[in-house]
Design brief:
Layout lengths: L2 H30 L6 H29 L6 H31 L4 H4 L2 H20 L10 H4 L8 H4 L2 H45 L7 E6 L2 E6 L5 H47 L7 H25 L1 H26 L1
Antiparallel strand pairs: 1-2
Helix pairs in contact: 1-2, 1-10, 1-11, 2-3, 2-5, 2-10, 3-5, 3-8, 3-9, 8-9, 9-10, 10-11
């Protein structure tokens, strides 16, 4: 094995182990912590399941196929790759849309994004991708026979899928989700910045004493809210403003987490998407080293999300810490008992 292949294999193995452990932590945290069972976290839970299957199933199959080409049917490897890759992209769109509705239509969010609707959205994503991914296995969308007979057991999209199927997958389920996610998160960033600027201006007005005991109109995110003190005094107004500021800060932290999550996704997924598009249109392939780096990047995406959650959401950090301590205690206790 060449040093290049050895480094790639070792890195993929590390991604598989770390990604599997990290996504199991996310799933257990949401299952065991009632405070984490929120609608936004439904989509994070679904993303963690997809990433876990990617790390624990798709990557090991790729490694086995790399060591022994032809030992695993390429149709199975390709189907699982298409399934988990497509599901991850759809989940990123669901997460972005959920935050878009929460920021753009805060008063109608609880009515439109219910548990039932979130479940229906997630279920529809799975149904679409399962049906689409198994089509080549059934012979629909697979490459012509003469190409399949000459692919030397290598499980590449270009040598196992028809050009029409590959273009539909790359454009409809890869490129368009990246563009849509970019546009939505640009809006989230812009709106979050505007909200914090409005709150900052209101705080300055209160501290300077320019707010009198009359009605105060607060406009943010195209929603007009009128606070009337009616003799309650500036202190009551300050309390209301403080509560609103705390809520906005929490929203901003969640928005920042989603923007980082989606930003990393775009950075790690875009290279292989462009490479596959270039290859699908019949252009000359990129250097093998570049292709391997791009493939490693897309699999890395299934590992990094847990660190994003831990970095921005304190409830996740506390849940991860408790789960790790509990696991360590269960692992150590039998040895302590045997020693006694």
């Amino acid at each position: 094995m060449s040093p290049e292949n050895f480094a790639t294999t070792a890195y993929m193995f590390l991604v598989s182990v770390v990604g599997s452990a990290g996504n199991v932590l996310v799933i257990l945290a949401i299952v065991h912590k009632r405070r984490l069972r929120t609608i936004p976290n439904y989509f994070l839970f679904n993303l963690a399941v997809c990433d876990l299957l990617n790390c624990s199933l798709a990557i090991p199959l790729r490694l086995v196929e790399g060591f022994q080409p032809g030992s695993i049917p390429c149709s199975v490897v390709i189907a699982l790759t298409v399934l988990f890759d497509g599901l991850s992209r759809l989940n990123i769109i669901f997460i972005s849309i959920d935050r878009f509705i929460a920021i753009k239509y805060p008063l109608g969010y609880s009515l439109s994004m219910t548990h039932k609707n979130a479940t229906a959205l997630i279920t529809s994503g799975w149904l679409i991708m399962v049906v689409f991914s198994i089509l080549p296995v059934m012979g629909v969308g697979s490459a012509p026979t003469e190409i399949l007979s000459n692919n030397q057991g290598l499980c590449f999209f270009s040598t196992n899928l028809s050009k029409a199927y590959l273009l539909v997958f790359l454009i409809a389920l890869c490129l368009l989700p990246l563009i849509l996610a970019t546009l939505i998160n640009f809006f989230l960033l812009k709106t979050s910045h505007r909200q914090m600027r409005v709150i900052h201006d209101q705080q300055a007005n209160i501290e300077s004493g320019t707010v009198e005991n009359n009605s105060l109109e607060i406009s943010a995110t195209n929603t007009n809210v009128t606070f009337s003190t009616n003799g309650e005094g500036t202190s009551s107004l300050e309390v209301r403003h403080y509560k609103r500021k705390i809520h906005a800060l929490r929203q901003r932290k969640v928005v920042k987490m989603v923007i980082i999550l989606v930003g990393l996704f775009i950075i790690l997924v875009l290279p292989i998407t462009l490479i596959d598009l270039v290859t699908a249109f019949g252009e000359s392939g990129v250097p093998p080293l570049v292709a391997k780096i791009a493939v490693s990047m897309i699999y890395t995406n299934a590992t990094v999300n847990v660190f994003v959650y831990a970095g921005f959401i304190g409830e996740f950090r506390r849940a991860f810490s408790q789960l790790i301590r509990a696991g360590r205690a269960r692992f150590v206790s039998p040895f302590q008992f045997a020693k006694c």
